[in-house]
Design brief:
nine-stranded mixed sheet; about 25% helix; 8 helices; alpha/beta
């Protein structure tokens, strides 16, 4: 009888809250002699450890990325592939009109990851097709500076990177910290690690992204975790007009969020306001299935004379 295959949670050795953390795994080993060069982004990973891809939209030098990398570094072989500059708000865009370049990024003398002159979705595509020797078994995106909730989910490069992973059938989780003024990324990353332990214990639903938002409060003040839906709360948007030294007008987008979430007890935004971590399942099929029957009854027809 063949043994039961280990789950992803078992393979990363995640211990659920309060238990002993997993032992630290060694770093990925380089390609064998003759199968690559120092300048090549290809790297062979130790097969018995889980391949984890880490990306974001705040850029490869963002402190939230470094904090999340540190928090999950003992769960497997973590490879960072992220935009070389901030790409917030680019959603699921990809680069078509210019070439993409891969740069090895070092923090001091330590190799940190690969920087890409593209969008977060570009980073996932290049990582899966050019940098990693095989598809990652887990994709983590973040830790984002600021929440990705309500309508922001549609604009978020952080969530889009995770969706790109889900499109490739990779279990994918996006993490965001709902604080922009005084973010404590180390604390948020430790909370993310706890939430990830619970997620991986039973796995991520197939072809689904889990969008995790962490309130910007101390761990001791955190009330728990809620599974939520995306809030329908919208922004009241304004554009602030200014004039440059040459007399030309330019604009900054501003605005404020309405308080519709107060009538949504199970929404992501309400969970954050109440002091809970929000976990929202998101998928990339944007079809409105509920509208199909009525539209089908009204619009379906055969054109006369069609062949």
């Amino acid at each position: 009888m063949h043994p039961r295959p280990l789950s992803l949670g078992e393979r990363v050795g995640v211990r659920v809250l309060g238990d002993t953390p997993a032992p630290k795994h060694p770093h990925p080993r380089p390609l064998p002699e003759g199968e690559g060069t120092e300048g090549s982004p290809k790297a062979a990973l130790v097969e018995e450890f889980v391949r984890i891809l880490l990306t974001n939209d705040d850029g490869i030098n963002a402190p939230g990325l470094a904090a999340l990398r540190k928090a999950v570094s003992d769960l497997g072989d973590v490879t960072v592939v992220a935009p070389d500059t901030e790409r917030s708000g680019v959603a699921h865009s990809i680069t078509l009109a210019q070439p993409l370049r891969i740069r090895r990024i070092y923090h001091g003398d330590e190799f940190f990851g690969f920087g890409i002159n593209g969008a977060p979705a570009d980073c996932v595509k290049l990582a899966c097709r050019e940098i990693l020797p095989a598809l990652p078994e887990l994709l983590l995106s973040g830790m984002n500076l600021g929440a990705n909730v309500a309508i922001n989910v549609l604009y978020s490069g952080t969530v889009a990177a995770a969706i790109e992973g889900a499109m490739l059938s990779i279990p994918s989780v996006a993490f965001s910290l709902a604080e922009t003024e005084r973010p404590d990324f180390d604390e948020a990353a430790r909370i993310a690690r706890e939430v990830l332990a619970l997620i991986l214990a039973d796995g991520v639903p197939e072809r689904t992204v889990l969008n995790v938002n962490i309130p910007g409060i101390p761990r001791a003040a955190l009330k728990g975790i809620r599974v939520t839906h995306q809030s329908r709360t919208a922004y009241h948007e304004l554009y602030e007009k200014r004039v440059d030294p040459w007399g030309r007008e330019y604009f900054w987008i501003t605005g404020e969020m309405t308080r519709d979430f107060e009538r949504e007890p199970d929404s992501d935004l309400r969970a954050l306001k109440d002091g809970y971590v929000s976990v929202t399942p998101v998928h990339f099929d944007v079809t409105h299935y509920g509208a199909i029957p009525a539209l089908r009854a009204r619009l379906t027809r055969e054109w006369p004379g069609a062949t």
